[in-house]
Amino acid sequence: MPKKAASSARKTPARPADPAMALVDAALALAEQGGWRQTTLTEIAVAAKLPLDEAYRHVSSKAAILDRLGGQIDEAMLADGPADAEDSPRDRLFDLLMRRFDALQERRAGIAAIARDLRTDPLGSLALLPQLERSMGWTLEAAGIGATGLAGLVRVRVLGLLYLAVLRVWLRDDSDDMAATMKALDQRLSQIEQIATSVGRG
Description:
The protein is mainly alpha-helical. It has helices spanning 2-11, 19-34, 41-47, 52-58, 62-78, 89-105, 108-118, 122-126, 129-142, 149-172, 179-201.
């Protein structure tokens, strides 16, 4: 009997140190292999070496997994602190958004697979909007630009549209230095800067 117990203990998979991170990593790997829509929460939990009840405590849905992923990207962006206050607002936003794309680059294949499936899943895409707005709010705050009140809400949503437009370029950008992504981001920020200047004059 003791031998059997010892044998069972040996077969028990090691519990991941960071369950939430393990679930996100497992979800990205499975999405890359078989697509996001086909991937189930049970498969993700098994791949992350977590029992279902514990997986549920960390993520209650696939949308929650993507929310966790967005939070991890936010943390990576903020890890180096706020943007340099001596830079222009445009340069601060460029720096912070490129930090986001640098963090995304490490998980490129899985994110690209998820994005492909979300293109044909409007409800799934809508579920991500609150997380996108939180991310853009933190980006503005780290850039020293107000993200509260009506004006802040407008900035958050405009920056969100800009980010999604550049994200589409990033998904097609297979260069090591993300040259096309940087170019698109610079162009979009220039357009926003010109509009903001015109509005200010008006």
